[in-house]
């Protein structure tokens, strides 16, 4: 294990090959996301779902502002698109992996659990998302172990520097940090 993998957050034994593969995908997603910011109410999060052969099943941004819908997070949008495409509410038989530019929020953790997604790879941690943007990611008690208990593997904090740069770009562009008024 080299020092680079020590920063990875996971609920299973570290697999460098998996992490390196995920890093390639997440770097592509971060670059793709950056090109979409500033247009048509796109939020600063992008999620993609791949099958076990590496085929892209769905890829969606956060669209809360565009759709005027508080639950239109990237993960939820990508899961909805994948289920529609495959014609099922149960993605488990397809052994799918979700890649997302930042750690899933409290709502998306639930959406991932109910979808049957088997593997989750994410970029920036919720703590850093909150520090950089001011978005509220919610309270998340011990979700790594809860996912492990349900057979969902998680690797996170991948390509974090690039992900943080995109979030900073979003904030510096004057894009909205939307949240309910309290
Ligand atoms: Zn979310």
Could you characterize what this model shows?
With 182 residues, the chain is α/β, with parallel strands linked by helices. Helices cover 44% and strands 16% of the residues. It contains 8 helices and 6 strands; from the N terminus they run αβαββααβαβααβα. The protein has a 6-stranded mixed beta sheet with strand order 1-6-5-4-2-3, sandwiched between helices. Strand 2 and strand 3 form a beta hairpin. Helix 2 packs parallel to helix 8 and helix 6 runs parallel beside helix 8. The longest helix is centred in the first third of the chain and has 21 residues. The chain is globular. It binds zinc ion. The site of zinc ion has 6 residues, from helix 5.
Question: What's the layout of helices and strands?
Answer:
Elements: H1 3-6, E1 9-10, H2 16-36, E2 46-50, E3 56-61, H3 64-67, H4 74-86, E4 97-102, H5 106-115, E5 119-124, H6 126-133, H7 143-149, E6 153-156, H8 160-172
Parallel strand pairs: 4-5, 5-6
Antiparallel strand pairs: 1-6, 2-3, 2-4
Helix pairs in contact: 2-8, 4-5, 6-8
What's the quick description here?
The chain has 182 residues and is α/β, with parallel strands linked by helices. It is built from eight helices and six strands; from the N terminus they run αβαββααβαβααβα. The longest helix has 21 residues, at 16-36.
């Amino acid at each position: 294990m080299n020092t680079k993998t020590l920063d990875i957050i996971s609920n299973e034994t570290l697999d460098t090959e998996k992490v390196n593969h995920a890093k390639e995908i997440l770097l592509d997603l971060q670059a793709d996301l950056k090109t979409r910011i500033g247009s048509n109410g796109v939020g600063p999060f992008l999620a993609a779902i791949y099958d076990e052969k590496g085929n892209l099943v769905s890829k969606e941004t956060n669209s809360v502002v565009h759709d005027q819908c508080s639950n239109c997070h990237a993960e939820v949008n990508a899961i909805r698109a994948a289920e529609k495409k495959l014609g099922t509410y149960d993605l488990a038989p397809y052994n799918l992996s979700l890649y997302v530019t930042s750690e899933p929020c409290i709502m998306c953790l639930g959406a991932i659990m109910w979808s049957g997604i088997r593997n989750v790879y994410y970029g920036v941690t919720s703590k850093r998302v909150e520090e950089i943007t001011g978005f509220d990611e919610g309270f998340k008690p011990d979700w790594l172990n809860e996912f492990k208990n349900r057979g969902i593997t998680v690797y996170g904090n991948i390509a974090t520097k690039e992900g943080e740069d995109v979030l900073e770009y979003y904030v510096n562009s004057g894009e909205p940090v939307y949240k309910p008024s309290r």
